[in-house]
Fold this sequence. Notes:
A hairpin with a 4-residue loop joins strand 16 and strand 17 (354-357). The chain has three helices and 20 strands. It has one domain: Jelly Rolls (Sandwich). The chain is globular and about 50 Å long. Strands 5, 10, 11, 12, 13, 15, 16, 17, 19 and 20 form a ten-stranded antiparallel sheet that branches. By secondary structure, the chain is mostly beta strands. It starts with 13 loop residues before the first helix and ends with a strand.
Amino acid sequence: MHKGGGSRGIAHDAPLAVAVGVTVMALVVALLAAAAAAAVETPPELYHCKPKEKGLATPPPPPKLPPHVEAQLPATIAADEFRRVCPPGEVPYPTKSTAPVKVTPELTRAAAPAGGRVNSRRFSIRTRIPGHRRNRGGHATASRSELFPGFWYSHAVGTQSGLSASKGYNGMWVWQTNEQPYIPYAENMESSHSLAQIWASRQYGGCTSTVEIGWTESAGQFKGNYEPHLFISAWDCGVWLGYMSLESPLWKQSSAVVWPGAVVSHNDKFHAYGARMDGNNWWFYYDGQWVGYIPNSAWKTLYPSYLTKGQAGGEVATKALWTCADMGYGGLFGTHPWAAMFSDVWYEFNYQTQVELAKLQPYATDSSNYNTGNWSEGIPGAEFRYGGPGWC
């Protein structure tokens, strides 16, 4: 990130000009600082407090993280600025947040924190030319959603099928970046989304059951808020169990400082996400916190008691087939060193006593518009970048 700058010639009224310039600059710096400080604040209309449910399962022991992740995690947690938002004995619960609301189309982006990992050019703010669509290889191959009619889905992921049932894979983890991609205003308010997540799945007899965790941006879903939010979701043999929230009786909240729907910091550090089966429940982890769990009873058809497939990557869902929505860091197709990144994707198996790096293979539904890249040769199948600008 560039700092400082050049100077202009100053005439006889230099003291006044300098004073005005200093005042304006101070105001800009103050506003940017305030915006950066507020970047991880969850608007109060998106949650409320409730006494912690009695009889909750005990959180699992801390995960065994790769040494460099363990070393960097304290700095990440410090950047998260986790703090209790509810009185002692109470925990935050997300409110229902699926109905779009009318807000101004101002898409203000906060500056990257001082000393952050990334260059300012990672922010996906670009001039859009109305009606302009560059030819990137013809028609989309994105799939039309059957569950959410009218939405098209695009993916750029790493995927690994055929995980051995005999090994008992029962946890999936990743060290990844959080982003704030550009989504056209109208699409954003229609509950379009751009996200990155892990999919931990069990496939059996024609059924697929899945647990998912990641970050998502959707102003329509989150009452006009454009920040990325933590989300947790699950499927039971193709039946969606929903986003976990207060309205879902399936969700059991454990953490006092982070919850499904909470705003997460972005464009700063790598972040740890995980899903683990423990005590016959699926627990979800974010940056040192066991957020909560979905109990075994939530699955009526096929419980993912072990994993046979793992995926990590980006997803864009919009009503516009040829969308200008970014995935991750838009425009770089996952090949630029500042692009959004999944790093150190790994599994737990044999009742969390052993770990194994993932061996993912690249897959993209719309490879000319969203794709992966920079797959590490040193960590084959467990580290890659992703992104894309859509059809713009």
